[in-house]
Amino acid sequence: MKFADLGLSDELLRAIDESGYSEPTAIQAGAIPSVLMMRDIIGIAQTGTGKTASFVLPMIDILAHGRARALMPRSLILEPTRELAAQVAENFEKYGKYHKLSMALLIGGVQMGDQVKALEKGVDVLIATPGRLMDLFERGKILLTGCNLLVIDEADRMLDMGFIPDIENICTKLPANRQTLLFSATMPPPIKKLADKFLSNPKTIEVARPASRNENIEQFVVKTSERGKRDTLRGLIEAEDMATAIIFCNRKTTVRELAKSLQRHGYKAGEIHGDMDQSSRIAELDRFKAGTINILVASDVAARGLDVKGVSHVFNFDAPWHPDDYVHRIGRTGRAGAKGRAFTLVTPSDDEAIDNIEKLTGYKIPVHGGGAANPASAPESDKDAREPRRSARRAEPKAARGAKRAAEKPREAPKKDAGRRPAPQARPDDDDGADDGWNGPMPSFLSVGFGT
Ligand code: AMP
Fold first, then answer.
1. 168-182 confidence digits (pLDDT tens)
2. Ligand 1 atom at shortest distance from the alpha carbon of 25
3. How far apart are CA 335 and CA 108, in angstroms?
């Protein structure tokens, strides 16, 4: 199958060709012709499958004719996090360079004024996180009645983050006879219900989970102890032929502490997590992409879906709580046909998490036996690791920990709709798109006209 067989315009085919892609991926081949025929779609696919282009490409052709009116976007893409929203915007820039479409990004952490200005000019494509979109809608700064095409991306992650009521609400504000495309890595019952309610006669396209079946990623668990984790990690980094790595932690505080510890040990390490404002996250990612740092310590939400080429290693400093997160984490390596290695540090308390991962992926992860990487009994040399253990906190139920963290976190500007959205399900690094007070300059992609 060739891109030329999918019914896309010559301008788009040129832009695709210049991106270096020769063949459509399975989700692209399955979705693009149907989207062009204005059908509703359920795409069961996760990041790494090429799903972004499967909606961006046909959308560009669909929107090529017609004009945007002030405050009335012609299409809406809902994303759970700022990073994913920014990545979709980059896709529109890349593939839409021979079209004259305008887009705006509505995400938390950037000044609302600039976003409103972009909306007032009229946009063909609006990419938004649900929280910020609802804020602007309730302030009367946006009308969704001209929005005939809706994309709900990463629906299962939206569910995890407590966004489903917002999404239902948003769906009711759009014209009833719109086209709706829903993408989700899995279809748990609430997502199925959402699809039944808001999609009309959808075509379902399901593609293989890339990470669990990606033979290019070698996976290992590495046994260690809670106190030995940092030694184990450094041992692995030294023993591996590592170009660039993303190291995942379950908590934002662990991300911060581990990045500092690695820096003290002479590594070029940076950090990315949900407490950082948008400009800092972008700056840190740019440093990683440019090679100024070659280790990025990350939390799940901040790093989800990140598409950085050439990541040779993923280390799970903490075994993830949700098995789906494991699949997403290791999928940051072994991309575009490259080889990758993924290591998960496990302590005795992680047995259940590993069991759940193995059940989900249907793959028994081998135990890594490398000498340098077996310091379950290694001496603890990192002074930070001698901090008192937080065993008492670990014993708390997850929901209680989440609620506590939320309560402890100082909020610079209370959200006016606080209480409207149900509390997210105790994820440690939820990114609800809330305005976290960033007043820096607006990144260039936040409001751009793209094309010739
Ligand atoms: P996504 O699943 O949208 O996050 O895309 C994953 C990666 O696949 C990104 O790096 C895309 O640029 C890349 N990609 C998208 N379409 C293709 C294609 N047809 N062939 C090869 N790579 C692609």
1. 999 999 999 999 999
2. 19
3. 29
